[in-house]
């Protein structure tokens, strides 16, 4: 938040940014590009969910429901009704946000466990509805989904679009995370009593962030559908919602870089390392177990601890000695403004 | 500025009466001590004043507005701040971030404006950081501004809670056992800080077991026992009261 970024950190971010921007030029084959697109789409959802789970501490495990709603909205508008795909993506975001609002209104007042159960129930209901409403969704048979219009109609083009959207939403949440809003969300997560004491309206803040995550989930759903080119209710299994949640927990709460790396590792490793693919959920479970037991604060904290090991800072014991003149001036300034 | 007025407040939890017709007036520019044995209702009264509890009977008023049934957040915005018996800091954030959190009532940018990093958000951030920085220097935490709050020593945590409360630009500040666990020297510093707050016109409510400290720095003292006010007055009057000596101070 207010900690200043080191030159090495800035250089790393710049290098990472350049690598991502030029990825279609150096990536090995079409399959790896597809994987990069998939990671990007997941990330667009996770970056919004991260504000809900990682910052505000509201344990939503049902965001796959919002992803499905975005995907079917896009398929229905751009496919069945041949609407402009870019416009359809925007509408999917709006619908995702509205569904987030409708889900958040009754559920965000509930204590953690019950909130998590509500989001799970929501995602199960969405799956059932997509099966039942077959005149819109194609039922169990599913729907073919069109690609995005030019200049995003090639695999490279779709990657750029995902990169632009992903970069934008990451920038938005990064801005939130380093300002008063970010502090207030962490206060809600770590101590509701403290948050109330400084005047933060808990429900209002939770709802705003939840609606934001609904918008990013809706947009991610639209891009996801376009990427998959065919969707059925089986595409949106409950485990996918758990997967999003686990990416954040492994990455570390209250961080953006951590969950990003978590998303890359959990998406790419089972695909690239063949033996892991067979293990599937077992791999996720094992990773989660290892992180929760060994580094409960996630990958982000692991990096921080390593950095501190490399540059040890001695913390000296210090008698707290007030500067009363300065304090008086600061208090009087507050009283008069 | 008018006083924060507690009138005939009763608070029952089920059959248990924690506070019984308690009245108290917290005036600007005055340090008001609240003492009494464990379980006499001191923290309950603090929780009623800051809004975590609702009174069963009676009311709490500020400027004629009845606050008794308003939310904690509303009272924070009116300028009633508090600290906690056990410091409630956000351990993963820096000391500066913790202090800045107190400025929440002055935040004007909404979520979208913040996400888009509009000029107003950035201006506010700079202003809050400057204000919180001054307060941290003032309470003596200048050496730890960028340290994670969970790495603070006990006294530093207590002073950070005070800085956060002051960042709310309060009219009234309620301190729940702020001297708990402090050394004699640190308690001395705390006393000075409280006097600075009073001189700046804040009304201070001091809940404390450390009675020498209370009698030394308070202008008025209220003594509770079993949820009832047994004596109120100047420190000298309270110290010499036979009932207060019997139930609390000891011979």
Terminal residue distance of chain A? 26 Å
Tell me the span between the first and last alpha carbons of chain B.
40 Å
Largest sheet descriptor of chain B: 6 strands, mixed
Our Rg estimate of chain B from Cα atoms comes to 19 Å
Written as H for each helix and E for each strand, in order along the chain, the element string of chain B is EEEHEEHEHHHHEHEHEEHH
Unreliable runs of chain B, pLDDT <50, ≥5 residues? none
Please, could you describe this protein's structure?
The complex is a heterodimer of chains A (337) and B (251). Chain A is mostly helical. Chain A has one domain: Orthogonal Bundle (ABC transporter involved in vitamin B12 uptake, BtuC). Chain A contains 17 helices and two strands. In chain A, helix 3 packs across helix 12. In chain B, strand 1 and strand 2 form a beta hairpin. By secondary structure, chain B is α/β, with parallel strands linked by helices. In chain B, the strands form two sheets. In chain B, strands 6-7-8-3-9-10 form a six-stranded mixed β-sheet, with helices on both faces. Chain B has a four-stranded antiparallel β-sheet with strand order 2-1-4-5, covered by helices on one side. The longest helix of chain B is centred in the middle third of the chain and has 21 residues. In chain B, 39% of the residues lie in helices and 24% in strands. Chain B has a domain of 156 residues: Rossmann fold (3-Layer(aba) Sandwich). The chains are: A mainly alpha (337), B alpha/beta (251). At the A-B interface, helix 8, helix 9, helix 10, helix 11 and helix 17 of A face helix 2, helix 3, helix 4, helix 5 and helix 6 of B.
């Amino acid at each position: 938040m207010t900690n200043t970024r080191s030159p090495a950190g800035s250089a790393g971010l710049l290098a990472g940014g350049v690598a991502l921007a030029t990825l279609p030029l150096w990536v090995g084959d079409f399959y790896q590009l597809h994987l990069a697109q998939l990671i990007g789409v997941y990330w667009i959802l996770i970056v919004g969910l991260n504000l809900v789970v990682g910052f505000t501490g509201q344990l939503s495990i049902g965001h796959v429901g919002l992803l499905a709603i975005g995907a079917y909205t896009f398929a229905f508008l751009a496919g069945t009704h041949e609407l402009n795909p870019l416009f359809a993506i925007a509408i999917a975001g709006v619908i995702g946000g509205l569904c987030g609002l409708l889900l958040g209104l009754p559920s965000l007042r509930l204590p953690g466990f019950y909130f998590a159960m509500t989001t799970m129930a929501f995602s199960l209901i969405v799956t059932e509805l997509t099966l039942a409403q077959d005149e819109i969704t194609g039922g169990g048979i599913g729907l073919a989904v069109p690609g995005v219009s030019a200049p995003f109609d090639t695999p490279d083009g779709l990657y750029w679009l995902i990169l632009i959207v992903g970069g934008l939403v990451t920038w938005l949440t990064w801005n939130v995370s380093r300002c008063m809003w970010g502090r207030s969300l962490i206060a809600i997560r770590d101590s509701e009593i403290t948050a109330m004491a400084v005047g933060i309206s808990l429900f209002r803040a939770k709802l705003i962030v939840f609606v934001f995550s609904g918008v990013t989930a809706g947009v991610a759903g639209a891009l996801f559908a376009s990427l998959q080119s065919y969707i059925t209710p089986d595409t949106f299994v409950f485990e996918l919602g758990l997967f999003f949640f686990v990416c954040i927990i492994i990455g570390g709460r209250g961080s953006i870089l951590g969950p990003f790396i978590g998303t890359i590792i959990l998406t790419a490793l089972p695909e690239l390392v063949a033996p892991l693919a067979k293990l599937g959920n077992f791999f996720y479970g094992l990773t989660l177990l290892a992180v929760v037991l060994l580094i409960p604060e996630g990958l982000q904290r692991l990096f921080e601890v390593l950095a501190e090991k490399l540059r040890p800072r001695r913390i000296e014991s210090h008698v707290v000695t007030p500067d009363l003149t300065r304090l008086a001036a600061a208090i009087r300034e507050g009283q008069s403004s | 500025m008018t006083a924060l007025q507690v009138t005939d407040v009763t608070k029952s939890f089920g059959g248990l009466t924690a506070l019984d017709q308690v009245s108290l007036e917290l005036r600007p520019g005055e340090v008001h001590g609240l003492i009494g044995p464990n379980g006499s209702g001191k923290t309950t009264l603090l929780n009623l004043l800051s809004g975590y509890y609702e009174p069963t009977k009676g009311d709490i008023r500020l400027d004629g507005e009845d606050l008794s049934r308003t939310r904690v957040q509303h009272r924070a915005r009116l300028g009633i701040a508090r600290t906690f018996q056990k410091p409630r800091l956000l351990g993963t954030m820096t000391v500066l971030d913790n202090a800045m959190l107190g400025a929440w009532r002055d935040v004007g940018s909404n979520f979208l404006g913040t996400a888009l990093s509009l000029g107003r958000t950035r201006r506010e951030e700079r202003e809050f950081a400057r204000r919180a920085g001054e307060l941290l220097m003032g309470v003596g935490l200048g050496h730890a501004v960028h340290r994670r709050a969970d790495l603070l020593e006990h006294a530093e945590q207590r002073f950070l809670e005070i800085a956060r409360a002051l960042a709310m630009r309060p009219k009234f500040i309620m301190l729940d056992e702020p001297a708990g666990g402090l050394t004699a020297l640190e308690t001395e510093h705390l006393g000075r800080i409280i006097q600075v707050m009073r001189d700046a016109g804040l009304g201070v409510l001091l809940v404390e077991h450390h009675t020498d400290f209370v009698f030394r720095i308070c202008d008025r003292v209220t003594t509770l026992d079993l949820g009832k006010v047994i004596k109120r007055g100047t420190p000298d009057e309270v110290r010499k009261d036979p009932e207060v000596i019997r139930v609390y101070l000891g011979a």
